[in-house]
Amino acid sequence: MTLTQSQKRGFFGACMLAAILIAIGVVTTFFASNYQLRLVYSAFVNLIVVLGLQVFMGNSRLTNLSHSAFMGIGAYAAAICVTPVAMKQIALPDAPWGLNAFALDPVTSAIIALIVTGIVSLAVGVFIVRMTGTGATIASLAVLVIVHSIFLYRTDIFKGNQAFFGIPQVFSLTSIVILAVVVVFIVRGFRESPWGVMLRASADDETGAAAMGVNVRRLRLIAWVLSGLILATAGIAYAYFLGTISARPFYFNHVFLTLAMLIFGGMRTVTGAVLGTFAISFGLEIVRWLETGPKVIGINLPELLGLSGIMLGLVIVLTMALRPVGVMGDREIEEVFSKR
Amino acid sequence: MEYVAQQVINALSFGAEYALLALGLAIVFSVMGLVNFAHGEVIAVGGYTMVAFAALVTANPLIIIVGAVAATAMTSVALERVAFRPVRYADPTTGLLTAFGVSIVLQNLFLLFISPRPIAVTSLYFLDAPVMLFGVQISSLQIFESVTTVVVIVGLVLFLQKTTLGLAMRAASLDFEMVRLTGIRANRVFALAFLISGLLAGLASVFIMARRGSVDPHFGFNPVLKAFVACVVGGFGSLPGAVLGGFLLGAVEVAMLVLLPQDYGGLKDAFVFGIIALVLVWRPDGILSPAREKGDKQ
Lengths: 340, 298
Known about the structure:
Chain A: It comes from Pseudaestuariivita atlantica. By secondary structure, chain A is an all-alpha fold.
């Protein structure tokens, strides 16, 4: 198989991003406290979410607001399969269809979770890809609300806002770094693949692309389902590390957070997704510290609940006003370093 | 028979509220192509103004209502100046994300400077009294709501059809550059669209407040989500579409309340949105979307 010029460069760029991710992982393993390690882990989970979002939003340029719901579906599906029977008898005593009477190994559970999420995202995607820009966004918002209300309503399966506990903690920082690297290669590969190129062309000029024989809806659907699978992966990684999940982390606050990351970094590139995720993750940690009302140089700052939300919102507004394409714009990492 | 009449009236009054909300979104969208996510926060500003007026100024409900509507109108116009002017001619996605960011900022400002907890306002309870009409018991709030919506629609139609600025606004939704070439000030058209949108948000906030009785930072979220759905179903950018979508949504919602068994109550919204999604299979751009070929001048 021969690669085109841009695919070769894409492979090179993905290698550079992978090196950065591995470096972050290595530094964290050796120097970080337990608390910091959890922060870095959650940054990596969010990175996979943002990458999943980039596959659809970056290539088709339709705004998706339902991504956290798909992450939740993946997390819950895996959790229900993998949790030991004894645990599930306590956590889900009233579960229907014998959901609390079996348990599978983590790998099989993850595969089942991916299949389930894939089917759901295919079913939703068929509707979404038919709509034009604004309609698709609002419809995806409705999807988020629907999925969340199902999580809350079927407490016998999902436990709603209470913790679903007892999930075996099989993941470590090493596994998430490997996973993130694999996802980076997949996402960059999709961007430079013929499908990715055609989809980006259709985002620039839908009529023109269609006239050249691009099946816009089919390509959007492919990107949507791939995005759903990556989001499910993030959800599984989240559940397998924390051991407890609830419906709350898969709702609006998480949607804001990950969307701000992607927008800030620049949704058109994979590099932007990586940059945005880490910049916002670490920036937000400082804001969160300010939020709790710390003592700085002898001055007691007041508690500022909501400050992190204001910062996230401002990041989105200012990025849109000053540089709508995000920090990276159309440039991937290798283009920053190579001379033009 | 009475039961049926009652539910029909319920559907109409729900629909009237959604139509009012959806019109506020549609008027801005038709002029500048902006999906105003911050509309819900404008409504919340109305709610908080009522709190402030009731606590500090007067218990006279009329003054409270006028104050709330004035505050939402000013907020809406101010948002246009501060946040939406830089993205005025940007593509719809940029505008949408900006509005999304503005909405998050405002919501967290309420959280930070006011309170994360609901604050009650009792001076509007009198709006919600039971009334007997032709042997059917309904709430006076439903009558107020329906009458207001009808008045608003008639007023809006008269304004858009009979005045120069109304004509400019209708023209702006088709070809904005042409409107500017004829010497109409762009700023004025935009400010006016946001002013009308803010007035509608204010009226809506009064009714939502009368029904819920308290305001919290997420006050406007659910109503506006419904309004978005109404706009999408009716056809984004079409004012008759917004009204139609609002009433359709009200009808589906009441139908779900009546038909769904009691213990499925928590899934009402899921069913409502699901049914609405089926309408979009039939017409992906909404029922009354303006006929426009791909590649036409936007």
